[in-house]
Automatic annotation (TrEMBL):
<dbReference type="Pfam" id="PF13785">
    <property type="entry name" value="DUF4178"/>
</dbReference>
<keyword id="KW-0812">Transmembrane</keyword>
<feature type="domain" description="DUF4178">
    <location>
        <begin position="289"/>
        <end position="424"/>
    </location>
</feature>
<feature type="domain" description="DUF4178">
    <location>
        <begin position="84"/>
        <end position="213"/>
    </location>
</feature>
<keyword id="KW-0472">Membrane</keyword>
<feature type="transmembrane region" description="Helical">
    <location>
        <begin position="452"/>
        <end position="476"/>
    </location>
</feature>
<protein>
    <submittedName>
        <fullName>Uncharacterized protein DUF4178</fullName>
    </submittedName>
</protein>
<dbReference type="InterPro" id="IPR025235">
    <property type="entry name" value="DUF4178"/>
</dbReference>
<keyword id="KW-1133">Transmembrane helix</keyword>
Amino acid sequence: MATDPTPPPPPTPTQRFYRAPCPGCGAPVEFKSAQSTHAVCGYCQSTVVRNGDVLSRIGKMAELFDDHSPLQLMASGRITLDGQEQSFTLIGRLQYKTEAGVWTEWAAFLPDGSIASLGEDNGSYVFTRPSPAGRDLPEAARFRVGMTTAVNGQPYSVAFSGQAQLIAAQGELPQLPPLGQPFDLVELRSSGGEVLSITYTQDPPHVERGRAVLLEDLHLQGLKDESAKDEKGRQFNCPHCGAPVQVQLSSTKSVTCGSCASIISLEGGVGGELRSAEQDEPVRPVIALGSKGQLQGVHWQVVGFQHRMGAEPGDDEHFGWSEYLLYNQKRGFAFLVDSEEGWSLVRPTTGAPALAKNGRSATYLGKTYELKYSYEAETTYVLGEFYWPVVRGQKTFNRDFASAKGLLSMEQGANEITWSAGDKMASTAVAKAFGLTDQQDLLQRDDPGPFVASKGVGCATLIIIAVVLLILVLLISRCSDSSGGSGGSYRSSGGSFGGFSTGGGHK
């Protein structure tokens, strides 16, 4: 990727700010924005609230959950807002948790003194700003996952509806919800890629609106020199067989033992209570964990693997496929899907595609995808590390859509709908990316492509092809009639384009 030849201008200096000693330890606490009401002392972790020129200590903030983010306080960058490029500085960090996992929101200070949010969830980023709702919002329980609604005339789909809680914070911050107390959260997504977050921590609820951004497009300065984390305490003994287990990513919520393949939950943290679940019937991945390869111009590393089974509702026939969890420091996570229908590379979408009323098609970013499959999916075997608490037997309802240029997959759980989008990949490209050209036969899959008449094919040739196909259809129908077959449709096994259990699509 080409780099910007001109260095970014320095962030606009703050013209006014307020600084006062921490009521807990006396260290200086600074407020750059008039919209900031709270701050966390960097020395004693006291949570202080500002009332005019007076700071009051209201408690102590919990320690931050250690993550692999390249971001840090006082990093600065540029973003285009309302058609104009503006600078911003990260002045605060909040960490939230739901049943699905943990995510971070950075408070971004803008030149006009207002505060926006840079949401970070497992390597994906969404930039949002406060937005008027335009109407009285109903209570959170009225938003059901999968329903459609409108805010300010814009149609949205409900992607998440549940409870969250603040678990830690750092720096200068806007209004804070009580630490550790659950509050209602609703996330809406649009077919244009927008995300709208409704937080029920005040009355009326707080609304933020934005869209996904790439880290390299923000021209950030002041990032951490490296995202490698101190791994002290990240090794433990498997609670099932006693073998040593090493955790590579600090965002990991589930890991498998390399000796007995038990799934180990890390939700309580290393040193907390470890829960394990035995796995039998091992599935051997074709691409080994730890393998590195370049796909679509991005360098990925394989950190996880899961095998899944699916079945159409009311059908006893099952089909299986595999998913490789890929990781890149700046791009986050992606899924390399291996099915009998071929290979595909998919990533979670920020927006939510718009489903047709009959459910037979979906539109996203101006493209229409046709429904191919609807089925129930279940995770049957996992290896490696995962950023969500994966468990054997997890079940979801999936729909796969396809167009001439891409793939789209929906996965619905109890409280959340996640969408993923991507492209099919030739097996030769996968083999080359991971240095497995000598094992090409193991990776060989159907690599179908749309039928396109070449420039040398005329109308007469197309007519001959049509006649031949018609004759074949008639012969097949006669054979079916004579044998007394049911004539039911047949679906080849191979299943999902990219269904997966992300455990969190939050900004």
